[in-house]
Amino acid sequence: MSNLNIARAMILAVAEMGGAYWFLKTKKAGLRTSMTSFGLGFAIAIVLFDLLPDSTEHFTMGYAFFTVGAVIMILVASLDKQSNAKSSGSVAVTGMALHNLSEGILLVAMARPVSFILFTGALLHKAPEGMATFALLDGAKEKTRFTLAAAVSLMIPLGTVLSIPTSLQQPVMALLSGIILVAVSKALVEHSVKNLVATPKLQLAMPCFVGAVIGGVSCLIA
């Protein structure tokens, strides 16, 4: 692995850790609520505009794997309503980790240098992902949430030293895309219902919308 690949991977990992660290240090309840909405909206966009397209490119069966993943998560939710809030978040975070691993693998195949566009894309794309990971770990201790979010970000440099065939990578990512989309959507609904009384609807909906827009745009530039 070249020094250039290491630099690329670390830029992305540090940007993602930065998003998680910002969430960790935020103490205002209202801001945290908005950051959670933003992060979850961003995560949904990542699935729709990044994970799903990558996992189905030249692989039409990916849509079938995506559907299976979504159905699995729906069944898990219906069978485990009481404890599924935490398990859904854990499954989604696992998917985000594997997504980062795939990004690390992709970096090895890139021939172009670290450009301004890549750096801008990293800031737009990875920092909110750190926030999304932190938000999905709701219920765990603060330091545990940050530690896990940091571990997820470090999957990017780890991916640069691994070699996983696309024939295996795409089906797995397609399956996880379905699981993540349902898990994150469920977490967003639960977050909104939980905070609906104390938080104005606009304060819940607007950050989610902005997160989804930035997520979609960042997928185009990163």
What does the secondary structure layout of this molecule look like, with pairings?
Blueprint: H1 3-25, H2 29-56, H3 62-79, H4 84-109, H5 116-136, H6 142-153, H7 155-159, H8 166-195, H9 201-221
Helix pairs in contact: 1-5, 1-6, 2-5, 2-8, 2-9, 3-8, 4-6, 4-8, 5-6, 5-9
In short:
This protein has 222 residues and is mainly α. It has helices at 3-25, 29-56, 62-79, 84-109, 116-136, 142-153, 155-159, 166-195, 201-221.
Key terms for this structure?
222 residues; 83% helix; mainly alpha; globular
Give your account of this protein's structure.
This protein has 222 residues and is an all-alpha fold. The longest helix is centred in the C-terminal third of the chain and has 30 residues. The chain has 9 helices and no strands. Helices cover 83% and strands 0% of the residues. The protein has one domain. The radius of gyration is 17 Å and the shape is globular.
The rough form would be described as: globular
Q: Helical residue percent?
A: over 70%
State the helix count.
Answer: 9
Helix and strand composition category: mainly alpha
Order of helices and strands: HHHHHHHHH
How much is the average pLDDT?
A: 82
Strand fraction equals: under 5%
Radius of gyration: 17 Å
Spans of at least 5 consecutive residues with low confidence: none
Counted beta strands: 0
Task: Work out the count of structural domains.
Answer: 1
Biggest pleated-sheet summary:
none
**Distance N to C terminus:** 21 Å
